[in-house]
């Protein structure tokens, strides 16, 4: 796997292409100040891998972290247009009743978000043991699309199949969704697992992810945001940028950096280190550029 | 030079023994190793599989509980493991080193730790 990212691509990926952020101000606020395009620009927040129900040493405050994140998002100076959770809302349990209890509790906690336009998708911990049945009772469809201010968002489900496939039926749906879009349409894809082979040795891949990427390739402006690997990571497949998000439960090691993908240990000296969420600013025209601002979860 | 009867028998015996030894060696070379691997939540037994480079091997899998997967990406091999059946993978490791394998069908809380190592020497 070639993990090398050319500097130019990295600058684009990391959102450092000339953008300067003032601490405490959202990127949206500065973009909105630009005459003529304020109504086109927007930002959204991505949270991921909350694993509600997890208990263990990697996060001694497992029942407090999600609530702190909700509080942190509510405290943003400017509220986002919408919020997206990219999967693993809950931690796995074999008990169907307990699974539903955790989904219910998660939903109650995130109902405290000021922003009510919240988009969800399952992770394998939510959906793989029952093919998404319990998840759908609480959050509806596991794959869907929506449009926001000229950007076409596609939510793909690569977890309800316990083997981690998107499946031919959903791929046909994706093809049908993409078919009417112009080649230069602004497209954002949300998934849980990476669509490319990040590190298959740790199951950090989607078995038929290459088929989805192949369908997306004819479109010039595609960006993918995903979760699953509990760390910020940036990768290009051709012109398509893929951005992984930090988790809200425990960080995982860099791909292949140690023999096993065991969680990084909690550090009392730096509580919540490696956890966080991100703002994603969409600047319009002529093509949408996405600038990412990583934000921490802090003791408080 | 004449060879007495006893010596002829001895030579014949040595020849036969040599043939038998050679045949056994050939059979041993042709007999591929078969390694049985048992999967259960959330481990593989053995968790460490030692192989020889360029020597074909067949891995035989069974599961004691739910559907599992075995994936060894560095050699491009994988299989489903279904309860009540035996799954087999035959391959020849063509490089030495340590290579991780894992369950690639989500099987519950602990699935992520269902891993092991193939060691090729």
| Proportion of strand residues of chain A | 15-25%
Number of helices of chain B: 1
Distance separating the two termini of chain A: 40 Å
The CATH topology of chain A: Purple Acid Phosphatase, chain A, domain 2
- Percent helix of chain A, as a range, is 10-25%
Report the uncertain regions of chain A: 1-39
CATH class of chain A: Alpha Beta
Shape of chain A: globular
Task: Summarize the amount of helix of chain B as a percent range.
Answer: 10-25%
The major β-sheet of chain B equals: 4 strands, mixed
Report, as a whole number of angstroms, the end-to-end distance of chain B: 52 Å
Largest sheet of chain A, described in full? Answer: 6 strands, mixed
Output mean pLDDT of chain A: 88
How would you spell out the order of helices and strands of chain A?
HHEHEHEHHEEHEHEEEEE
- List the chains of the largest interface with their residue counts: A-B, 21 and 20 residues
Organism (chain A): Collimonas fungivorans
GO molecular function, one term (chain A): hydrolase activity
Signal peptide (chain A): 1-31
Keywords (chain A): Signal
Q: Would you mind describing this structure in some detail?
A:
- The complex is a heterodimer of chains A (300) and B (121).
- With 300 residues, chain A is α/β, with parallel strands linked by helices.
- Chain A is 24% helix and 20% strand.
- Chain A has one domain (36-296): 4-Layer Sandwich (Purple Acid Phosphatase, chain A, domain 2).
- Chain A is built from 8 helices and 11 strands.
- In chain A, helix 7 (168-178) links the parallel strand 5 and strand 6.
- Chain A starts with 6 loop residues before the first helix and ends with a strand.
- The model of chain A is unreliable at 1-39 (pLDDT under 50).
- Chain B is α/β, with parallel strands linked by helices and 121 residues long.
- Chain B has one helix at residues 5-30; strands spanning 33-40, 43-45, 48-51, 57-63, 68-72, 77-81, 87-91, 97-102, 115-120.
- The A-B interface holds A 91-94, 124-125, 128-129, 159, 162-164, 200-203, 207, 259-262 and B 67, 69, 71, 73-74, 80, 99-100, 102, 104-109, 111-113, 115, 117.
């Amino acid at each position: 796997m070639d993990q090398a990212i050319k500097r130019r691509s990295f600058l684009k990926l990391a959102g450092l292409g000339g953008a300067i952020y003032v601490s405490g101000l959202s990127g949206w606020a500065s973009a909105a100040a630009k005459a003529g395009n304020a109504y086109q620009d927007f930002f959204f927040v991505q949270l991921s891998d909350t694993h509600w129900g997890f208990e263990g040493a990697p996060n001694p405050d497992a029942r407090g972290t999600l609530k702190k994140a909700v509080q942190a998002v509510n405290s943003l100076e400017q509220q986002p247009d919408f919020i997206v959770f990219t999967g693993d809302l809950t931690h796995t349990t074999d008990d169907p009743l307990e699974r539903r209890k955790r989904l219910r509790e998660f939903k109650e906690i995130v109902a405290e978000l000021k922003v009510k336009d919240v988009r969800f998708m399952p992770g394998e911990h939510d959906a793989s043991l029952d093919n998404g049945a319990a998840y759908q009772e609480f959050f509806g469809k596991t794959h869907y699309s929506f449009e926001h201010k000229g950007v076409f968002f596609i939510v793909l489900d690569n977890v309800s199949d316990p083997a981690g496939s998107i499946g031919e039926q959903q791929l046909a749906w994706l093809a049908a969704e993409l078919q009417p879009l112009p080649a230069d349409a602004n497209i954002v894809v949300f998934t849980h697992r990476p669509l490319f082979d990040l590190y298959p040795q740790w199951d950090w891949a989607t078995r038929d992810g290459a088929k989805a990427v192949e369908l997306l390739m004819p479109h010039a402006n595609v960006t993918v945001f995903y979760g699953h690997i509990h760390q910020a990571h940036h990768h290009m497949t051709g012109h398509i940028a893929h951005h992984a998000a930090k988790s809200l439960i425990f960080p995982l090691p860099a791909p292949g950096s140690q023999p096993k993908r065991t969680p990084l240990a909690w550090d009392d000296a730096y509580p919540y280190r490696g956890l966080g969420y991100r703002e994603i600013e969409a600047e319009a025209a002529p093509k949408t550029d996405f600038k990412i601002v990583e934000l921490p979860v802090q003791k408080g | 030079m004449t060879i007495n009867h006893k010596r002829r028998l001895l030579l014949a015996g040595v020849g036969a023994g040599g043939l038998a030894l050679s045949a056994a060696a050939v059979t041993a070379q042709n007999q591929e190793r078969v390694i049985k691997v048992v999967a259960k939540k959330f481990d593989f037994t053995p968790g460490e599989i030692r192989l020889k480079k360029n020597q074909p091997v067949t891995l035989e899998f069974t599961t004691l509980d739910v559907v599992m997967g075995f994936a060894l990406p560095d050699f491009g091999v994988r299989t489903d493991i279904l309860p009540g059946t035996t799954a087999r993978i035959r391959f020849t490791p063509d490089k030495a080193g340590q290579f991780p394998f894992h369950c690639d069908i989500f099987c519950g809380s602990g699935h992520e730790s269902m891993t092991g190592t193939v060691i090729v020497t």
